[in-house]
Each structure stands twice: as C-alpha cells, then as structure tokens.
Amino acid sequence: MIPTVLYWWRLIRTWFEWSGLRGFPRADKNSPLALVASLSDWEYGCKVESMLALGLAGENWRVRFLIRNPTLRNARRWFKCAGFRDLSEFSSYESWLGDEKAAVYSAEVKAQGTSFQQVKEWTFRNCLIGPQILASISRKMFSAGFDVNDPEVAGRVDAQLVTAIHNVLAAERVLDALQPSLLLVNEANYTYFACLVDVAIARGIRVVQFIQPSREDAIIFWKLDQSTRRTHPAAVSAATLGRLESWNDPTVLEDQVFKIFGERYGGKWYLQSRNQIGASKKSRGQVVRQLEIESGLPIVVVFSSVLWDANLFYGRDLFQDNGEWFKATLKAAAANPNVSWLIKLHPVNNWKRELEGIHGEMAEMRLVREAVGVLPPHVKLLLPDCGISTLSLFEIADFGVTIRGTAGMEMPCFGKPVITAGTGRYSGLGFTLDSKTKEDYLTLLARLPSIPPLTPHEIALAKKHFFAAFRLRPWELQSFKATMRPPKGPGDLDYARLSPVVRTWNDLQKQGDLSRFARWATVGKSPDYMEESKLP
Of 38, 159, 346, 524, whose Cβ has the fewest other Cβ atoms within 10 Å? Predict the structure, then answer.
C-alpha cells in the first residue's frame, strides 16, 4: 500500500510532468473510437496505457478508457493527468443473471464435456472460456496437474464458469453501447479481458495487444484476429521473417545476434536480470564439478515452464498441461542414463512468488516426488538460485528440451538441437525438433544423445528469427522513459515508473515513436509491429 502523502506527492508531480502533453488535439464526435481496456489502477500500468492513448489521439482517434469498477479511483486520476476524462466501467454493464439462467447456460457449456481437455475447449457465444477458467484456477492454486473432477476443483470450475458467462454477456453489452473501432488491451486472456477480446474479434473490431518484454525500455505489439488469437504476442510473423531471407552475411548476423545475447544476459535491463539474480557465467568444467555430474556424458537441459502461470493460451500442447509434461519428462530423464539431465526450474518462481507473498514448497518439488521419488544420479534439479547463468547453459549443453519456452529460440543459435513438446511462436520454422504426439516426443528423449547437431542452414534460420524477435519486434520508448528497481517486498508496485522525456505535444509529435505505433495500430496490415529502422 502506498503511503497517502507519497501517493499525493507523486500524483501532483505527474500532473506537472504531463502538463504539456494534455494539449493534444481533441477528435470530434464523428472520429473513430479507441477503447483502452485498463488492467488495474497501478500507476505504472495506467501511465503506459495513457502514453499509448496519446499516440492514438495524435492520429485523430477518440479515446475512452474502460476500468473494471468504480473502486479504481486511482486509475481515473492517472488518466486525468494525461488529459483523458472519458471513462466507462465494465461493472456498469454487468447484470444479475439469476441462478436459474446461470444454471441453464452452465449446463449448455458442460455438455461439451468435463475432462480437462474438454474443459480447455469450452466456448460460450463465440468466446473460448475454457483456458481462462483453468488458468485462473491454476493461478490461485499456484500449481498444475490438478484433477478437474476432484470435488474441490470442480467447485472452483463451476464458480469460474458462471463468472465467465457473466463476463461474456457484459462484454457484449459494452461493445453494443460504445461501438469502438479499436480495442487496446494488455491482458488478453484472463477474466473479462478475454471475453472483450473474443467478442470484439467476432464482430470484426480491430484488437491490439501490448506486452512488456524482458526489458523496460520497450513494448511488444500484436494484432489479434481469428488467425492470430492463440499466437503468442511476441511472435514473429512470416512477413517479418521474409524481410530477412536475403540476409546472407553470416559474420554480421552473428555479431548482431550475440550483441543481443550480451544485452539480455549482461545486466542491461532489470526485467531480464531479475531472472539471473546471483547467477554467473561458468565453464562446462565448473558446472560438472558444482553439480557432480559425469564429465564424459553429453548434457541435456530441460527448461521448465512456470507450471501455474499463463501456459494454456498459446499453441497446441502434447500433454494435458505443464504439470503432466513435467512429470513425463522427469520419468523419461530417469530412464535414460546415457546423458546428464539438468532440470532447470523457471527463475520466475523466485521473484514472482516473492512479489505475490507466496511461501512454502514449489509445485515442481511435489511433482518430482510423484514422478520418480528420488532423482537418480544422472538427473539434477537446477533451482532458480543455482548460480549458473542461462547463457552458460546455452554454451555448455549439448541439447535442450522445452514446451515452447524462449530457450527454444535461443539455444539453436549456438547450434544445439532443442526438442519441443507443443506448438508455439517458433515451432515449424526449421530449427527445432517438434513432435506431433507425446509418444513421438518421448521417443526423441529416449534417443538422446543420438540426435545430430544442427546444420549451418538451421543455425542461420534460428539466428534470423532471434534477431527479428529481439531487435525488430520491440517498439523502443523515446518520448518516455521507464525505470525499474527490485521490489522492496510483497505488494511493492512502486518498483516501476514511467515519465515523459518530452515536455510539449509538439515535441511528442516530432519524436515520432508514438506516431509510428499509432499508424501501425490503426491502419497497418501486418500482425506484428516491427521497427523498420532496425532492418539490416
């Protein structure tokens, strides 16, 4: 909780910092409307939304913010600092459904099946509500691999189903009343945001999602429609990759790629470095000695996903969920002593659990006991605080394994094969080993280490994709500056701040970064925003 005096001081400071930007031209009532679905009343989030809204206003769009309910008074204040006063509340479009009607709708949805996979595919009035129901439960339990037919979990499913039905109906009323031509969202998959997005897509409304990548000085943009709805917003489109087909200078490509690796793992950005706290670069020999593994065996690193976070929304999974994948992979590792297995738990477990005040055993430890009991000597668990940098693992390992994690697009740049267990933003592009079934996936694991290294062509494909993802896709802040520091404890949201670098509306227009975003968002054809100036 922000102390009252500090909060008001920051609000007043923001009012004066943004004063010159409030002079943006107001569009007339006949101009198209952009609806910004605001995530919360967090200062940093509201300021990012306001910054992007300024870009849309500069392209002669009306802007209206949509907040969840009237209790988010702080959001109103932050938006006013940027000059925006048009605001609606999602809760005002909610209507009591009644137990009888809710039961009828719930029964219609449940008729689609009640197994985990069937729940995952649940739809209601053009909205895919299954993944958000399961993900919401997973987030609350901080676990995976749960049984949806367990009485306690089934009760949670029923409650989330009714909530999802209410949200779909309210989302329809919101869009009926406001008639936006563009919907701008940060969160596109949880609670009422997912329903807004799905209803908007079904009605042909342009939907733009923005996310914060692993760097504080940039934002990633992605257009959502029927064909891109279940694609990760940080994906690289075929058109963008096509722009790099003729790049045939391997020396320059390698220099550019490993410059990015140096930035990502060299501490340049706080958001990336928090995944490497206490980690240092180590040689193969140092890792072998630290973990007491057999030095002559090839090394396989399994990059575990966060079991309880947003893992149900993108691509097609070979396994029911990340928990089932984790257990199956552990069993396969235990059964193959021909390689040394390093099971790397995701570093997000460290800082996100701390930020949200979560204590106790990690879900992965329970799954280890359920899958194999005690790990055999050739399988080692790498905890988030193991002290070994991810970059070291890319360099010293011989193979990688992931569902669809970022490691699957990084490790091939070092010539190392990566086995995936689901489709994602880079599967099928020619530099990963993808399987169509879980049996095929497990067969690949059993074959290790008899899988050949990547060819020069495959490595070049991986490097071009990596360059596009980490250099071309990020929209870099110029008119504003974001600063971040480690949180002081659970609930400390003051770790992130955003301030304008420019002082007047004319200066903002001259800078051009927000205009480039807004033109792509409103009239651009490609699903992914790309920085044209970064093209080789």
Answer: 159
Q: How many CA atoms are closer than 13 Å to the CA of 172, on its beta-carbon side?
A: 11
pTM over 0.85: yes
Chain-centre distance for alpha carbon 428: 20
Q: Give dist(CA 186, CA 238) in Å, integer.
A: 23
Distance CA 64, CA 497 (A): 23
pLDDT class of 357 with cuts at 50, 70, 90:
low
Express each pLDDT in 386-428 by its tens digit: 889 999 999 999 999 999 999 999 999 999 999 999 998 999 9
**Helix (H) / strand (E) containing 165:** helix 151-178
- What is the rounded CA–CA span in Å between residue 302 and residue 330? 9
Which of 120, 104, 56 minimizes the C-alpha distance to 84?
56
* Cα–Cα nearest to 470, from 265, 251, 229: 265
The H or E element containing residue 221 is strand 218-224
Cα 406 to Cα 372: distance, rounded to the nearest angstrom: 27
Q: What is the DSSP code string of 455-484?
A: PHHHHHHHHHHHHIIIIISPEEPSSEEEEE
What is the Cα–Cα distance from 173 to 167, expressed in whole angstroms? 10
**Which residue's structure tokens are 């006949």?**
30
Q: Closest by alpha carbon to 198, among 157, 164, 232, 148? A: 164
pLDDT at 328 over 80: yes
Placement of tokens 């990015």 in the chain: 260
475-476: strand order across its sheet: 87-89, 62-67, 33-37, 182-185, 206-211, 218-224, 475-476
Work out the number of other CB atoms within 10 angstroms of the CB of residue 297. Answer: 16
pLDDT at 68 over 90: yes
Alpha-carbon dihedral angle through residues 174, 176, 177, 182, given to the nearest 10 degrees: 70
Sign of CA dihedral 110, 113, 117, 122: negative
Q: What are phi and psi of 195, to 5 degrees?
A: -65, -40
Of 330, 344, 317, nearest to 442 by C-alpha is: 330
Q: Is the pLDDT of residue 141 over 90?
A: no
In angstroms, the first-to-last Cα distance of the chain is 47
Contact, 247 vs 534, CB < 8 A?
Answer: no
| Nearest one of 473, 474, 462 to 253, comparing CA atoms | 462
The string of DSSP letters for 50-103 reads HHHHHHHHHTT-EEEEEES-TT-HHHHHHHHHTT---EEEGGGG-----HHHHH
